[in-house]
Each structure stands twice: as structure tokens, then as C-alpha cells.
Amino acid sequence: MNLKDIQILLESFNLGVRDGRVFVKRSGLFSSRASFFMAGMGGSILAAELFRDLTGNNFQIIETYSLPKIKDGKDAVVFCFSYSGNTEETLSVFRGAEKLGIKTLCFSRGGRLKKLSQPKNFFEIPDFLAPRLAVPFMLGVLWGIFSKGSVPFKESPLPERKRLSTLIGQMKNKIILVYSPHSLRGLAHFWEINVDETAKQPCFCGEIPDINHHDLASFTNKKFRNRFFAIFLEDNSFLNNRINLTAKFFGKYLGIDSVIFKISKKNAIRDFLSQFALIYALSFKLAEINKIDPFENLIQERLKKELKKR
């Protein structure tokens, strides 16, 4: 995937806003008192997590088989996201919501989810080859559903080749750590999923300040230090000093290189989309270096088949 392809993915955000507004008119407007539950797994749920981070909406994210206890189902809406339409955890949540008479909105390419949902409440996702690549579009869809203002995105700068080259050199053959404040946990998850699935390199995310109380201790074992590279996400909050100090400790006392990315509240959409571009470019280049297929997912499919036997 080249930078031109990535730019097309970013521009799909605006298309998503348009389609989201059409969809909400078709499926019916929500009560002002409605509570929202977002169900999905892996790359399929990323857009909901990122939208929550961007807007501060108190959506409950469901990444398991069942709904939490809901006091009043009449004012609840369950969003079910499954790129394939066959994710068993999401289908289980859908069936649970239907039994309780809770309104469900479904988003997928097709599959079982399309067959089970009501046509007016189903949104067919265009083909993006993989759930993680549909994120800019689906983020736009959610923006179109929930936001009435003008489209907030005009352009987002692609990463500079020099910076890409530097980061690739730092990340190559490393286990990647992504640390963020709670407000950017969705973006950290986006890093994790893309590096894991596209580059096939282990990537783990954690939250600051929590990681200061345990992760730091693990890196005092000198046997493992040279295996890691750390990415810190900063949100211009009171935690900035702690984030910068933690990054300093990683380098000075633990010998682990790191980089800090700043996300501004004023230009959050632009900064998120810029991060998407960087992450896509890095993960596909790392896949090329690692000589692996960025779209191969045989191990996940094998696990799913084994689970069906039990």
C-alpha cells in the first residue's frame, strides 16, 4: 500500500459522514435520552472506540458475548459492528438485544448479521479488504450519525518519507509498546491492531499512569531491554509531564528508545487521521521488510474453526 492508497482511505472519512447521515434518517432518529452500546471485536470495533475518544461520548464498548444489564431497554440502542458479518461474539450480542426488544443497528459487509437484521437497520460496509482499513470510513459514518455540524475534515498531511524511514529503522525487529492516557486508548488500540495484523509484529498497549506502577519494573531485567521500542501518545492534559518523564526514564535508565506523538484537542480529527496515515504506512512497510502477507489471517481462522468444534 502506497501513500496514494492511504490518502484514498483518509478521504473515505467524508464519504462515511455522508452515508451515516443518510442511514440515520432511514433507520429512525434516537431519543435524546438514549443510551448507546457498541459491540464488536478487533478492527471492527475500532471506529467506535476512536469516536468515543474524539467526542467524549459515554458509549459502552462491548467486546464479549453478552450485553451488560440494561435498566430501560426502550431507550437503549445497540450498534453491532462485524466487518464479515459472522463474528460470533457480535452475533451473540445481537441475538441478546433482539430477545430483549432493544433496537439494534448493524454494520457489516454481509454475512449472518445482514440476514438477521432488519433491512432499514442494516448498513453495508464497502469493501476495504480488511476491517482495520475501513476505520476512516466507519469513523465518518459515526460522525454522520451523531453530529449535525459541517464535515470537520478537509485534508490530513501524509507522513514525510524521512520520518517514515527513521521510525521504520527504530521499529524493525522490535516488540512495540504503545502507551497513552485513558482519553486516547482507542488510538493506542488502533496502533496495536495494525502492527499486530499487518506487520505481524507483537504490539501491546497500556495506559498511563497505570503502566508506571508495573511495566517499568519488568524492563529493569537487562535480558529483554533491546527487544522493545515504545510509542507514547500525548493529549495535552495534566498527564503530559508524566508522559514525558516516563519516556525519559525509558531512554536514560532502561535503554529503550521511544517517540512521543502529540494529539491536540483543537485539531483532534486532523491529528487522528494523520496518525492513521502514519500507522498504515509503517505497518505495511514493516510487513514488506518482514516478508509476510499483510492480509494473511490463517491463525485467527484456524482458532475460529477449532472453537466451532467445541
UniProtKB/TrEMBL annotation:
Task: List the Gene Ontology MF annotations in alphabetical order.
Answer: carbohydrate derivative binding; glucose-6-phosphate isomerase activity; mannose-6-phosphate isomerase activity
Tagged with keyword Disulfide bond: no
Q: Which Pfam families match?
A: bact-PGI_C
Domain of life, per lineage: Bacteria
GO process annotations (BP): carbohydrate derivative metabolic process; carbohydrate metabolic process
**Which keywords has UniProt assigned to this entry?**
Isomerase
Q: Which family does it belong to?
A: Belongs to the PGI/PMI family.
- Would the keyword 4Fe-4S turn up in this protein's UniProt record? no
Describe the location of the SIS domain by residue ranges: 26-155
Q: What is this protein called?
A: SIS domain-containing protein
Output the lineage of the source organism: Bacteria, Candidatus Brenneribacteriota
